[in-house]
Amino acid sequence: MPQSDDNTPAAREAAAGVPKPRSEEGSPLIRFDKVVKRYGDNTVLDHLDFSVQPGQRVSLIGPSGSGKTTILRLLMTLEHVTDGVIWVNGDPLSHEYKGTDLVKAGEQHQREVRKKIGMVFQQFNLFPNMTVRRNITESPIHTLGVSRDEADQRAAELLDMVGLKERIDAHPTQLSGGQQQRVAIARALAMRPEILLLDEVTSALDPELVAGVLDVLREIARTTDITMLSVTHEMQFAKDVSHRVLMFDKGKIVEEGPPDQIFGAPAEDRTREFLHAVLEG
Ligand SMILES: Nc1ncnc2c1ncn2[C@@H]1O[C@H](COP(=O)(O)OP(=O)(O)OP(=O)(O)O)[C@@H](O)[C@H]1O
Protein backbone atom coordinates (compact mmCIF):
# COMPACT_ATOMS: atom_id res chain seq x y z
CA MET A 1 0.00 0.00 0.00
CA PRO A 2 1.49 3.37 -0.90
CA GLN A 3 2.55 5.47 2.05
CA SER A 4 1.40 9.01 2.39
CA ASP A 5 4.21 11.36 1.35
CA ASP A 6 4.29 13.04 4.75
CA ASN A 7 5.14 9.78 6.44
CA THR A 8 8.13 8.57 4.45
CA PRO A 9 11.62 8.87 5.93
CA ALA A 10 12.62 11.05 2.96
CA ALA A 11 9.72 13.42 3.60
CA ARG A 12 10.51 13.60 7.33
CA GLU A 13 14.14 14.36 6.56
CA ALA A 14 13.24 16.97 3.98
CA ALA A 15 10.88 18.61 6.48
CA ALA A 16 13.65 18.61 9.07
CA GLY A 17 16.11 20.18 6.62
CA VAL A 18 18.57 17.31 6.96
CA PRO A 19 21.67 17.78 4.79
CA LYS A 20 22.70 14.79 2.74
CA PRO A 21 26.46 14.19 2.62
CA ARG A 22 26.53 12.33 -0.68
CA SER A 23 24.36 10.10 -2.84
CA GLU A 24 21.43 12.29 -1.97
CA GLU A 25 19.58 11.15 -5.01
CA GLY A 26 20.68 7.52 -4.85
CA SER A 27 19.45 4.52 -2.96
CA PRO A 28 19.89 4.40 0.78
CA LEU A 29 22.62 2.15 2.14
CA ILE A 30 20.41 1.11 5.07
CA ARG A 31 16.64 1.12 5.16
CA PHE A 32 14.38 0.03 8.01
CA ASP A 33 10.95 -0.71 6.63
CA LYS A 34 8.23 -0.98 9.32
CA VAL A 35 10.60 -2.91 11.54
CA VAL A 36 9.09 -4.44 14.65
CA LYS A 37 11.12 -6.11 17.39
CA ARG A 38 9.40 -7.74 20.33
CA TYR A 39 10.72 -9.67 23.29
CA GLY A 40 7.61 -11.46 24.57
CA ASP A 41 5.10 -8.70 25.29
CA ASN A 42 7.74 -5.99 25.23
CA THR A 43 7.64 -4.10 21.92
CA VAL A 44 11.14 -2.68 21.66
CA LEU A 45 10.91 -1.32 18.11
CA ASP A 46 7.49 -0.29 16.90
CA HIS A 47 7.07 -0.15 13.10
CA LEU A 48 10.29 1.75 12.67
CA ASP A 49 10.96 3.46 9.31
CA PHE A 50 14.20 5.25 8.57
CA SER A 51 16.97 5.20 6.05
CA VAL A 52 20.64 6.14 5.95
CA GLN A 53 22.41 7.36 2.84
CA PRO A 54 25.95 6.22 1.99
CA GLY A 55 28.48 8.30 3.90
CA GLN A 56 25.95 9.65 6.34
CA ARG A 57 26.89 9.80 10.03
CA VAL A 58 23.85 9.32 12.24
CA SER A 59 23.66 9.53 16.01
CA LEU A 60 20.93 7.66 17.87
CA ILE A 61 19.97 9.32 21.13
CA GLY A 62 17.17 8.80 23.63
CA PRO A 63 16.43 7.38 27.04
CA SER A 64 17.64 4.03 28.27
CA GLY A 65 15.55 1.18 26.89
CA SER A 66 14.23 3.11 23.89
CA GLY A 67 15.61 0.53 21.46
CA LYS A 68 18.79 2.15 20.15
CA THR A 69 21.18 -0.74 20.76
CA THR A 70 18.62 -3.17 19.37
CA ILE A 71 18.83 -1.36 16.02
CA LEU A 72 22.59 -1.99 15.85
CA ARG A 73 22.20 -5.60 16.96
CA LEU A 74 19.61 -6.21 14.22
CA LEU A 75 21.99 -4.79 11.64
CA MET A 76 24.72 -7.10 12.90
CA THR A 77 22.20 -9.98 12.69
CA LEU A 78 22.87 -10.70 16.35
CA GLU A 79 19.08 -10.45 16.67
CA HIS A 80 16.27 -11.04 14.20
CA VAL A 81 13.34 -8.79 13.42
CA THR A 82 9.86 -9.82 14.55
CA ASP A 83 8.32 -8.14 11.51
CA GLY A 84 9.24 -5.73 8.74
CA VAL A 85 12.40 -5.71 6.63
CA ILE A 86 15.87 -4.27 6.98
CA TRP A 87 17.55 -3.51 3.66
CA VAL A 88 21.30 -3.08 3.27
CA ASN A 89 22.47 -1.87 -0.11
CA GLY A 90 19.12 -2.81 -1.62
CA ASP A 91 19.20 -6.38 -0.31
CA PRO A 92 17.10 -7.68 2.57
CA LEU A 93 19.02 -9.13 5.51
CA SER A 94 18.62 -12.87 5.14
CA HIS A 95 16.59 -13.62 8.22
CA GLU A 96 13.77 -11.61 6.77
CA TYR A 97 13.28 -14.09 3.97
CA LYS A 98 10.09 -15.84 4.91
CA GLY A 99 10.20 -18.73 2.43
CA THR A 100 12.12 -21.84 3.48
CA ASP A 101 13.53 -22.20 -0.06
CA LEU A 102 15.44 -19.02 0.41
CA VAL A 103 16.91 -19.72 3.82
CA LYS A 104 20.06 -21.37 2.52
CA ALA A 105 20.79 -18.67 -0.01
CA GLY A 106 19.97 -16.23 2.74
CA GLU A 107 22.66 -17.52 5.08
CA GLN A 108 25.35 -17.02 2.45
CA HIS A 109 23.96 -13.60 1.69
CA GLN A 110 23.86 -12.72 5.37
CA ARG A 111 27.60 -13.45 5.67
CA GLU A 112 28.27 -11.17 2.69
CA VAL A 113 26.22 -8.36 4.21
CA ARG A 114 27.91 -8.83 7.59
CA LYS A 115 31.32 -8.28 6.00
CA LYS A 116 30.27 -4.76 5.09
CA ILE A 117 29.50 -3.88 8.70
CA GLY A 118 31.94 -3.31 11.56
CA MET A 119 30.82 -2.81 15.14
CA VAL A 120 32.51 -1.46 18.24
CA PHE A 121 30.86 -2.47 21.50
CA GLN A 122 30.69 -0.85 24.91
CA GLN A 123 32.92 -3.64 26.28
CA PHE A 124 35.88 -3.85 23.96
CA ASN A 125 35.63 -7.63 23.44
CA LEU A 126 39.28 -8.08 22.43
CA PHE A 127 40.75 -11.58 22.59
CA PRO A 128 42.90 -11.47 25.74
CA ASN A 129 45.25 -14.24 24.68
CA MET A 130 46.16 -12.59 21.36
CA THR A 131 48.47 -9.66 20.75
CA VAL A 132 47.05 -6.38 19.52
CA ARG A 133 48.38 -7.24 16.05
CA ARG A 134 46.58 -10.60 15.95
CA ASN A 135 43.37 -9.12 17.31
CA ILE A 136 43.38 -6.83 14.28
CA THR A 137 44.61 -9.24 11.61
CA GLU A 138 42.66 -12.44 12.42
CA SER A 139 39.38 -11.56 10.73
CA PRO A 140 40.84 -10.04 7.55
CA ILE A 141 43.05 -13.12 7.10
CA HIS A 142 40.40 -15.73 7.89
CA THR A 143 37.22 -14.06 6.65
CA LEU A 144 38.45 -11.97 3.74
CA GLY A 145 41.43 -14.14 2.74
CA VAL A 146 43.87 -11.22 2.96
CA SER A 147 47.57 -12.25 3.04
CA ARG A 148 49.36 -12.06 6.39
CA ASP A 149 51.76 -9.40 5.09
CA GLU A 150 48.95 -7.22 3.85
CA ALA A 151 46.98 -7.68 7.07
CA ASP A 152 50.07 -6.78 9.14
CA GLN A 153 50.67 -3.66 7.09
CA ARG A 154 47.06 -2.56 7.46
CA ALA A 155 47.20 -3.26 11.23
CA ALA A 156 50.28 -1.03 11.51
CA GLU A 157 48.55 1.79 9.58
CA LEU A 158 45.41 1.54 11.67
CA LEU A 159 47.34 1.47 14.95
CA ASP A 160 49.19 4.57 13.81
CA MET A 161 45.82 6.21 13.14
CA VAL A 162 44.54 5.40 16.64
CA GLY A 163 47.85 6.49 18.21
CA LEU A 164 49.01 3.04 19.34
CA LYS A 165 51.60 1.89 16.83
CA GLU A 166 54.18 1.11 19.54
CA ARG A 167 51.75 -1.26 21.26
CA ILE A 168 51.36 -3.66 18.34
CA ASP A 169 52.93 -6.56 20.24
CA ALA A 170 51.22 -5.85 23.57
CA HIS A 171 48.41 -7.97 24.97
CA PRO A 172 45.06 -6.30 25.76
CA THR A 173 45.55 -6.72 29.52
CA GLN A 174 48.63 -4.49 29.29
CA LEU A 175 46.53 -1.63 27.91
CA SER A 176 44.17 0.86 29.53
CA GLY A 177 40.45 0.66 28.73
CA GLY A 178 40.78 3.63 26.38
CA GLN A 179 43.67 1.99 24.55
CA GLN A 180 41.75 -1.27 24.28
CA GLN A 181 38.81 0.58 22.81
CA ARG A 182 41.09 2.26 20.26
CA VAL A 183 42.37 -1.21 19.28
CA ALA A 184 38.74 -2.36 18.96
CA ILE A 185 38.10 0.55 16.58
CA ALA A 186 41.17 -0.41 14.53
CA ARG A 187 39.97 -4.01 14.48
CA ALA A 188 36.55 -3.01 13.16
CA LEU A 189 38.15 -0.89 10.42
CA ALA A 190 40.57 -3.66 9.40
CA MET A 191 37.68 -5.36 7.62
CA ARG A 192 37.25 -2.22 5.48
CA PRO A 193 33.55 -2.02 6.32
CA GLU A 194 31.17 0.32 4.53
CA ILE A 195 29.25 0.81 7.75
CA LEU A 196 30.65 1.37 11.25
CA LEU A 197 28.30 0.79 14.19
CA LEU A 198 29.30 2.31 17.52
CA ASP A 199 27.43 1.21 20.62
CA GLU A 200 28.08 3.57 23.53
CA VAL A 201 31.79 3.06 23.00
CA THR A 202 32.89 5.29 25.88
CA SER A 203 30.33 4.19 28.49
CA ALA A 204 32.63 1.65 30.14
CA LEU A 205 35.62 3.99 30.31
CA ASP A 206 37.02 6.03 33.15
CA PRO A 207 36.20 9.69 32.45
CA GLU A 208 39.80 10.67 31.73
CA LEU A 209 40.01 8.10 28.92
CA VAL A 210 36.88 9.18 27.07
CA ALA A 211 38.36 12.13 25.15
CA GLY A 212 41.13 10.06 23.53
CA VAL A 213 38.62 7.60 22.09
CA LEU A 214 36.24 10.32 20.89
CA ASP A 215 39.15 12.18 19.25
CA VAL A 216 40.02 9.04 17.27
CA LEU A 217 36.41 8.77 16.10
CA ARG A 218 36.28 12.46 15.21
CA GLU A 219 39.39 11.93 13.08
CA ILE A 220 37.79 8.94 11.34
CA ALA A 221 34.71 11.06 10.67
CA ARG A 222 36.90 13.88 9.30
CA THR A 223 39.15 11.77 7.08
CA THR A 224 36.89 8.98 5.77
CA ASP A 225 33.44 8.80 4.27
CA ILE A 226 32.42 5.69 6.16
CA THR A 227 28.74 5.45 7.02
CA MET A 228 28.44 5.67 10.78
CA LEU A 229 25.60 4.84 13.16
CA SER A 230 26.44 5.78 16.69
CA VAL A 231 24.43 5.12 19.85
CA THR A 232 25.81 7.67 22.25
CA HIS A 233 25.22 9.58 25.45
CA GLU A 234 28.01 11.99 24.48
CA MET A 235 25.96 14.87 23.15
CA GLN A 236 28.94 17.04 22.18
CA PHE A 237 30.34 14.18 20.14
CA ALA A 238 26.97 13.66 18.44
CA LYS A 239 26.90 17.38 17.67
CA ASP A 240 30.44 17.38 16.27
CA VAL A 241 30.32 14.36 13.97
CA SER A 242 26.71 13.79 12.92
CA HIS A 243 24.98 14.81 9.76
CA ARG A 244 21.78 13.79 11.43
CA VAL A 245 20.45 12.91 14.88
CA LEU A 246 17.55 10.56 15.58
CA MET A 247 15.81 10.94 18.93
CA PHE A 248 14.13 7.73 20.13
CA ASP A 249 11.53 7.02 22.75
CA LYS A 250 9.71 3.74 23.31
CA GLY A 251 10.87 2.19 20.06
CA LYS A 252 9.86 5.08 17.84
CA ILE A 253 11.63 8.10 16.36
CA VAL A 254 10.10 11.12 18.08
CA GLU A 255 12.23 13.68 16.27
CA GLU A 256 15.05 13.77 13.75
CA GLY A 257 17.13 16.47 12.15
CA PRO A 258 20.56 18.01 11.85
CA PRO A 259 22.41 18.45 15.17
CA ASP A 260 21.88 22.21 15.17
CA GLN A 261 18.15 21.65 15.24
CA ILE A 262 18.02 18.77 17.70
CA PHE A 263 20.42 20.34 20.18
CA GLY A 264 19.71 24.00 19.45
CA ALA A 265 15.98 24.16 18.81
CA PRO A 266 14.28 20.81 19.43
CA ALA A 267 10.68 20.77 18.27
CA GLU A 268 9.37 18.05 20.58
CA ASP A 269 8.82 18.25 24.33
CA ARG A 270 10.20 14.74 24.75
CA THR A 271 13.49 15.75 23.10
CA ARG A 272 13.75 18.85 25.29
CA GLU A 273 13.08 16.83 28.46
CA PHE A 274 15.63 14.21 27.49
CA LEU A 275 18.34 16.74 26.63
CA HIS A 276 17.64 18.66 29.81
CA ALA A 277 18.02 15.50 31.88
CA VAL A 278 21.24 14.48 30.10
CA LEU A 279 22.90 17.86 29.95
CA GLU A 280 21.84 19.17 33.38
CA GLY A 281 21.86 15.82 35.17
N1 LIG B 1 17.79 -10.22 24.74
C1 LIG B 1 16.80 -9.52 25.27
N2 LIG B 1 15.76 -10.14 25.86
C2 LIG B 1 14.72 -9.44 26.37
N3 LIG B 1 14.63 -8.09 26.36
C3 LIG B 1 15.63 -7.43 25.78
C4 LIG B 1 16.77 -8.10 25.21
N4 LIG B 1 17.60 -7.15 24.70
C5 LIG B 1 17.03 -5.95 24.95
N5 LIG B 1 15.85 -6.11 25.60
C6 LIG B 1 14.95 -5.04 26.01
O1 LIG B 1 14.76 -4.19 24.90
C7 LIG B 1 14.58 -2.86 25.33
C8 LIG B 1 15.46 -1.94 24.52
O2 LIG B 1 16.81 -2.22 24.80
P1 LIG B 1 17.99 -1.45 24.06
O3 LIG B 1 19.26 -1.98 24.65
O4 LIG B 1 17.83 -1.51 22.60
O5 LIG B 1 17.76 0.04 24.55
P2 LIG B 1 18.72 1.29 24.46
O6 LIG B 1 17.89 2.40 23.97
O7 LIG B 1 19.94 0.94 23.69
O8 LIG B 1 19.07 1.54 25.99
P3 LIG B 1 20.47 1.89 26.70
O9 LIG B 1 20.73 3.33 26.37
O10 LIG B 1 20.20 1.65 28.14
O11 LIG B 1 21.50 0.94 26.14
C9 LIG B 1 14.82 -2.83 26.82
O12 LIG B 1 13.57 -2.82 27.46
C10 LIG B 1 15.53 -4.14 27.08
O13 LIG B 1 15.27 -4.62 28.35
UniProtKB/TrEMBL annotation:
Family according to the record: Belongs to the ABC transporter superfamily.
Keyword RNA-binding among record annotations: no
Xref: InterPro entries: AAA+_ATPase, ABC_ATPase_HisP-typ, ABC_transporter-like_ATP-bd, ABC_transporter-like_CS, Ectoine_EhuA, MetN_ABC_transporter-like, P-loop_NTPase
The UniProt record lists the keyword ATP-binding: yes
Pfam families named in the record: ABC_tran
Recorded coiled-coil stretches: none
Species assigned in the record: Murinocardiopsis flavida
A GO CC term assigned to this protein in UniProt: plasma membrane
Subcellular location: Cell membrane
Species lineage: Bacteria, Bacillati, Actinomycetota, Actinomycetes, Streptosporangiales
Keyword field: Amino-acid transport, ATP-binding, Cell membrane, Membrane, Nucleotide-binding, Transport
NCBIfam families per the UniProt record, alphabetical: ectoine_ehuA
Record protein name field: Amino acid ABC transporter ATP-binding protein (PAAT family)
Entry's Gene Ontology molecular function annotations: ABC-type amino acid transporter activity; ATP binding; ATP hydrolysis activity
Membrane topology: Peripheral membrane protein
Domain ABC transporter: 30-275
Region: Disordered, residue numbers: 1-26
Taxonomic superkingdom: Bacteria
